[in-house]
């Protein structure tokens, strides 16, 4: 039972981390003078990536901290990041 | 401070303005601004990026950003996702004018990108292999067995050298096989969808398994089912996989519509 739960949480976390990775690192970048990017975004990115790094560390050591638990409780958000796992 | 800037989530092919009434980041009302057949999904905001030192707040921002993109995929049959925290300033005109100007200037590239992503979602595929099983197979190969046979009856020094040679050979053959597996998976999946990228993996979750390759694919429902079917056939032969998605097609729009 516990193993099943942990397995489900891991599946969910993979979806979350994949989503965060894409959101922070990818997507169209507008190269226009009137877009807020130059001064502010590097700082923001550093801040967010620090948060992401802490998630990776938590996952690495199997710690399901506060950062992730609220996400797994929200059905709407779960739907948005549905993850499928197929194994042996 | 007035909300005279625009936070832009993504671009859809709609062509007319719509008060979409979806709640975006911090509950802001999301609507569209259209030009040249394309519509940007936006909310009014201040001229400053969304940031916080609270991880929970950051999580909320990211989820809210993606919720709008997910809704857009369902409503408009696709979305061109913009980088998180894309905010258009007012400058000497209005932020709306600046956005329309950008849409107009990038129409051709938006058309090209839309044709590629319409009706498709992005999926992350992690394929793992059983390292121990592979080493065992290689260790039992004729080439390694010959080296081991040669060791028999040899003096300590020569035996040690041959043992080292066997280890090096196991490593070489192992890596060749891993690279071969990787190429085969890539080629086979590419037969289903040409929109395929190897993604550097920064995240290792199942430490008991070894990651063979981390892929991002752009696929419609039929294609992803075909890929899943193909991967399922490989299960039990020393491979396993995890598939996450669908996501907005983040990996397939970069540097194309900027």
Distance between the termini of chain B: 29 Å
What kind of sheet is the major sheet of chain B?
6 strands, antiparallel
**Could you list the spans of chain A in which at least 5 consecutive residues all have pLDDT below 50?**
1-7, 38-44, 54-88
- Number of individual domains of chain B: 2
Radius of gyration of chain A: 16 Å
The quaternary state of the protein chains shown equals: heterodimer
Element-by-element helix/strand order of chain B: EEEEHEEHHEHHHEEHE
Series of H and E elements of chain A: HHHHE
How does the helix and strand content of chain B classify structurally?
alpha+beta
Overall mean pLDDT of chain B stands at: 87
Q: How much strand content do the residues of chain A show? A: under 5%
> How many helices of chain B in DSSP terms?
7
Low-pLDDT sequence parts of chain B: none
Number of domains of chain A: 1
Determine Rg of chain B (CA atoms, Å): 26 Å
Brief summary of the model shown:
By secondary structure, chain A is mostly helical. Chain A has 4 helices and 1 strand.
What does this structure look like?
The complex is a heterodimer of chains A (88) and B (258). In chain A, 61% of the residues lie in helices and 5% in strands. Chain A has 88 residues and is mainly alpha-helical. Chain A has one domain. Chain B has 258 residues and is of the alpha+beta class. Chain B is 44% helix and 23% strand. In chain B, a hairpin with a 5-residue loop joins strand 2 (22-23) and strand 3. Chain B is elongated and about 85 Å long. At the A-B interface, helix 1, helix 2, helix 4 and strand 1 of A face strand 1, helix 1, strand 5, strand 6 and helix 2 of B. Strand 1 (83-86) of chain A pairs antiparallel with strand 10 of chain B, so a sheet runs across the interface.
């Amino acid at each position: 039972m516990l193993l099943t739960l942990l397995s489900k949480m891991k599946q969910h976390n993979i979806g979350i981390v994949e989503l965060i990775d894409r959101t922070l690192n990818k997507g169209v970048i507008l190269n226009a003078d009137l877009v807020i990017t130059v001064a502010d975004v590097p700082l923001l990115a550093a801040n967010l990536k620090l948060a992401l790094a802490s998630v990776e560390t938590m996952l690495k050591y199997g710690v399901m901290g506060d950062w992730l638990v609220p996400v797994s409780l929200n059905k709407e958000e779960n739907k948005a990041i549905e993850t499928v796992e197929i194994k042996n | 401070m007035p909300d005279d800037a625009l936070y832009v989530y993504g671009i859809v092919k709609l062509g007319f303005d719509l008060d979409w009434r979806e709640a975006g980041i911090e509950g802001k009302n999301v609507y569209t601004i259209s030009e040249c057949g394309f519509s940007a999904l936006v909310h009014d905001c201040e001229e400053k990026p969304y940031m916080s030192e609270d991880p929970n707040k950051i999580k909320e921002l990211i989820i809210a950003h993606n919720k709008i993109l997910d809704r857009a995929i369902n409503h408009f049959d696709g979305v061109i996702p913009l980088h998180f925290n894309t905010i258009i300033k007012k400058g000497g005109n209005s932020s709306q004018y600046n956005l329309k100007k950008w849409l107009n200037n990038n129409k051709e590239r938006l058309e090209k990108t839309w044709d590629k992503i319409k009706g498709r979602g992005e999926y992350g595929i992690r394929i793992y292999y059983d390292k121990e099983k592979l080493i065992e197979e290689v260790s039992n190969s004729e080439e390694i067995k010959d080296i081991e046979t040669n060791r028999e009856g040899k003096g300590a020094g020569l035996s040690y050298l041959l043992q080292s040679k066997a280890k090096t050979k196991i490593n070489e053959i192992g890596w060749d096989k891993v690279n071969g597996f990787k190429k085969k998976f890539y080629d086979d999946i590419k037969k289903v969808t040409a929109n395929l990228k190897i993604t550097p993996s920064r995240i290792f979750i199942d430490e008991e398994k070894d990651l063979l390759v981390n892929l991002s694919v752009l696929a419609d429902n039929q294609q992803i089912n075909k890929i899943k079917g193909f991967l399922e056939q490989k299960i039990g032969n020393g491979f396993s996989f995890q598939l996450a998605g669908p996501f907005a097609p983040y990996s397939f729009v970069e540097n194309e519509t900027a």
